[in-house]
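Marked as duplicate of an earlier ticket. Keeping the data here for the record.
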Amino acid sequence: MTDTAVSGTAVRPEAAASGAVPPGSGPVPPDSGAVAPDCGPDSGTLPPDPGARLAALFDGGGPERGVTSLLRSLLDGPGLELHPAWAASIVTVLGRLAGRTVGVVASDPSRLGGSLDAAAADKAARFVRMCDAFGVPLVVLVNTPGYLPGTAQERGGLARRGAKLMHAFAAAVVPRVTVVTGKAYGSAAVTLNSRALGATRVFAWPGARFGPGEDGPAAALADEVIHPAATREAVARVIAVAPCGRGTHRNIPL
């Protein structure tokens, strides 16, 4: 059922379910009517410098190979990936950054080259709405060549489902920080929590490429160009000072 989005994760045997959530995935409120319990400027501290791992990943071309190593280097510890077998070109993870619960939406260039297809747009939109309903800040890692082309995608409602994701980000009131690690091409890059959608902050790594539809240097399309080693500190700082909040909507299927 994990490849149909009915179930977020699967374990076997049933007795293992109680230990399926990693401690690093962090707490969420008991319901969508409360603000996350670890919200606020004193909600956590950054562990000792792990920036060297992100720097080495950047120097080795890691962002083009896949997103797993990037997530491992960015978060405090293992997070909980939701729907890993469904729409794998986008990864959705609950984890901790500087001790605070965050939701991560990340392009995975090892799947479909990181292209955003109709199912991936649905998956990400649902996750964004869930995080906003529970007051969980969002971190968005962008490395995409754009929407997946083809008549099959058009017939599958790519434009309509992409609009769901754009609406989910634009309507979210939680802190939303974007890091462009590689490609940010076309309307898919706009949809993934761009400045145009009111992102709290947009960072870009050196060499980030903004393509058709977003022509121009990274300095003009991001708020700041940062070295990969500074990513954790930069993102954590923005989230720490941003106002706490949650969406007024409930956690309904989008």
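See parent ticket for discussion. The mean pLDDT is 82.
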